[in-house]
Amino acid sequence: MRDRLQLPEAAAKPPRSLDGMSIAVPLDQLEERLAQFPWGYLMTVRDDGRAQGLAVPTHLVDGVLVATIGRSAAGNAAARPNVTMIFPGSSGEELSLIVDGDARVNGDRIEVTPTSAVLHRPALARA
Hints:
17% of the residues lie in helices and 43% in strands. The chain is built from four helices and eight strands. It has helices at residues 2-5, 9-12, 30-34, 71-79; strands spanning 22-24, 39-45, 51-57, 59-61, 64-68, 82-87, 96-106, 109-120. The chain has a single domain (2-120), classed as Pnp Oxidase, Chain A (Roll). The radius of gyration is 15 Å and the shape is globular.
């Protein structure tokens, strides 16, 4: 996406923290963080440009996220391999893990090589 938008180098790097809502996760720490999330949503893009989400159990194998997927998600990822995986916290108070990566489809499996990761929580309105 950065290449398409031609962002300057400084703007392309994720911030360390954004008002306490986002925390960058170094990729060498991803396995430790992912241990808290046994499943996540794989987000791909359909031919018409709409997002498609699929809940999948996910494992990290040699630094690559691996999950079993169906035909439509496989087709989407093969055609548009830039994908996002979202591992939600169980409440709005807990952090969710968001991982962007490059996908490779291998039969009914997707293998996502992470390119960036962030822990994020929503900004909840306080009454």
